[in-house]
What does this fold into?
Amino acid sequence: MATIIKNKRRIGILSGGGDCPGINAVIRAVARKAILEGGVEIIGIEDGYEGLINNEYHRLENRDLSGILTLGGTILGTSKKANPYRYAIKKDGKLTFKDMSKTALKNIRGLDLSCLVCIGGDGTLGIAYKLFKDGIPVIGVPKTIDNDIMGTDITFGFDSAVWIATEGIDRLHTTAQSHHRVMLVEVMGHNAGWLALHSGIAGGGDIILIPEIPYNINSIIEKVKERHRRGKKFSIVVVAEGAKPKGGNVVIQRIVKESSDPIRLGGLAFVLGDQIEKISGIETRAVVMGHLQRGGSPTPFDRVLATQLGTKAVDMINARKFGYMVGVRKNSFVEISLKDVAKGARKVPLDHPLIRAAKDLDTCFGDKC
Ligand code: F6P
It folds into this structure.
């Protein structure tokens, strides 16, 4: 905790949910622009909403912003569990939930923030909306590798994750080819297929499985065998962690009980890989890209996007456009009500041009190939 300077406009900033490349670029843009405008103190809330509940924060000075544009993760820390409206408390091995919003609201008011900038995905922005309804001037900045936030066509972090996943697919291509194997690559994305779709197309996947199109194992086997018949003795299958068979369920890796969104997906590639090998008789291997996709330095695209989102957020603070998120639609920056953002995740529409383009190139989506 830091002593705060009196008679200065104060902007609070926090990052919530899973980390991703570009968060620091947003923090830098918000803080640097606001500091340059003058008369502003920037308060970095530590570990997302956890810091609001426990009153943990520190002042961000110009020197804290140097060198962070290219840095992955978040200098403020984050939490995927802390929700002031449903805060998990573990005592004697027993888990209970408590409404800690009054404490969080008291702490925010104690800081006398003229605005709280919340950088996060749908969970973080949903909580931001609740804080707004409770009288806090908030502004949201959309962050996630999943690219699934309602109201914006693109989130920062996505391009970096696509790049990492594509790099992984490229590397598996050569080994699949050399060993005449089927290689499955599982990518993240939660219940949306954006990451699998983009990296699958960029990496030349033969089969791409996304949550929006439930798959039929027979279609996958048929595709793999048909490639064999044509002399292509390997296949690359890009699997979204949230994909599921027709009439079946997702594969759950773990349940995080303390979290408001407790299901962690993962492991479908292994399940599917075993099935493909058993049924087709072709040697198969599976790789789960996992958290590698959230690490490292943001791509230039994400650095530019994050910087613009950060500066737009400051414009919105100056215009007192509270209760809104800055987003991108049709290549323009827009302001989207957090109420609309909270309506749910943005899935890949079945008539999306990228699905059509991939199908035109004979890519199989596990429905009918
Ligand atoms: O939302 C980002 C994300 O990486 C998802 O793609 C993934 O399902 C989830 O977070 C993983 O969560 P955790 O970091 O808790 O394992």
